[in-house]
Automatic annotation (TrEMBL):
This is FAD-dependent oxidoreductase. Keywords: 4Fe-4S, Iron, Iron-sulfur, Metal-binding, Oxidoreductase. It comes from Actinocatenispora thailandica. The keyword GTP-binding does not apply. Pfam families: FAD_oxidored. One of its GO terms (molecular function) is metal ion binding. The keyword Metal-binding applies. The lineage of its organism: Bacteria, Bacillati, Actinomycetota, Actinomycetes, Micromonosporales.
Amino acid sequence: MTTLRYSTEIPVEDEVDVQVVGGGPAGVAAAVAAARTGARTRLVERYGFLGGNLTAGLVGPCMTSYSLDGREQLIRGVFDEFVRRMEAAGGALHPSRTRAGDAYSGFIEYGHDKVTPFEPEAAKAVALQLCREAGVLLRLHSFVADTVVRDGRVTGVVAASKSGLALLPARVTVDCSADGDVAAAAGVPTEFGRDTDGLAQPMTVFFRVAGVDDEAVERYVRSHPEDRRPYESVVARARSEGRFPAPRRGVGMYRTLRPGVWRINTSRVLHRDGTDVADLTAAEIEGREQVLRLVEFFRADLPGFERCELLDTATTVGVRESRRIVGEYRLTLADLQSARHFDDVVALCGYPVDIHDPTGSGGGVDESAGTANVYEIPYRSLVPRGVDGLLVAGRCVSTSHEALAAIRVMPPAFAMGEAAGTAAALAVRDGVPPRALSVPELQRALLEAGAYLGVPVG
Ligand SMILES: Cc1cc2nc3c(=O)[nH]c(=O)nc-3n(C[C@H](O)[C@H](O)[C@H](O)COP(=O)(O)OP(=O)(O)OC[C@H]3O[C@@H](n4cnc5c(N)ncnc54)[C@H](O)[C@@H]3O)c2cc1C
């Protein structure tokens, strides 16, 4: 590839205390928490709406926010408020009202107790409401393309929009881009994929179908207990005849709050890198072709789906895994298995390891990985090595491939975002780098705001 050295003058916008890049589950929680903690907060998002995978990815339901045994709600705070707000508007069911193995859980038992079904439009509305009520300054339609680092500290990001390029300065930045875009551009070391071969989990274009006969689906699935996943034997037959359009063994399907409407998590695109534009383009093409062929297959082969129609597809292909920053602590599977206690715990989770096979048709929630009923995420996993003025939350925090496969779902992303946003605001208030923040003070602030960390802290 040839290169060009390019220099230009760009406008410098107002400096804020805390700048959050990416308005998904982590970013919304981070921005709301930072603003409520008293920081002048800006949220920069590439789309014209908030929610990330909750909305643009059409991903749902939210996987469990409870302990693995479904007994205790671990992720509360902004997440719980978000869900209750959607529920009050008729756009969600609180997780306490769903159970493992039901249609909202995709008929899956293990790790699927207490999921949260919700409507994507409710998520769009509530994300915006919470941010606006907290006084977050919104900069939508803005893609962050670069990071400015001065004397080892992130001082702002460069965003591209219809108004051109601009520098958006901030005292502390929280990278909630899911891909670690800000951190990578700042020179923070990152990891990608499995230790063995660097391959990441596959991508999926989520879609919804309408016109499904809900009772017929329920009847079929309940009368085929031999299928580990819904319609597994139908899919196996079609695969042996070369008729199934995606490298999957069953149909990932989740009933929604709307009669006859199901979310489908079944397309699969292998061997693509979510930080490479050529790969993303190829993944969109392949994933969207699979969707059309899957709908045809559903109509022809799946009892209950004979009259279904494509309702919509996600705005973007869903990327399960890409860069993970190298932070002050790398969370591992052993930590999740042993329920390792961290003095700097900032979130509790119970969702198990869920690895979609990077090379083939297998994978999913994995009982044999043996994660604990409740495990902890430490603050240090949100603190990047080597650069100040920056925190990271959501899918790109410092973990192994296996540990990420458990904490990557949306409720933990909210919890990590809330912790990072609160920490960023406290660091600005106290005039210290985020890595030097008093962790007991952060934990107290999180508890006061409604988060749950198990035992009372400090
Ligand atoms: C196919 C698939 C299925 C999944 N299934 C489930 C499920 O059923 N339940 C569940 O709970 N979780 C599921 N997950 C996991 C979950 O959706 C994500 O891991 C989670 O959304 C991560 O939250 P986040 O806030 O870190 O990132 P995201 O939700 O990806 O949000 C990132 C936000 O940052 C914005 N952004 C990114 N880069 C930039 C940039 N450079 N400049 C400006 N804005 C930027 C994006 O537009 C987006 O709004 C699934 C994920 C995928 C991909």
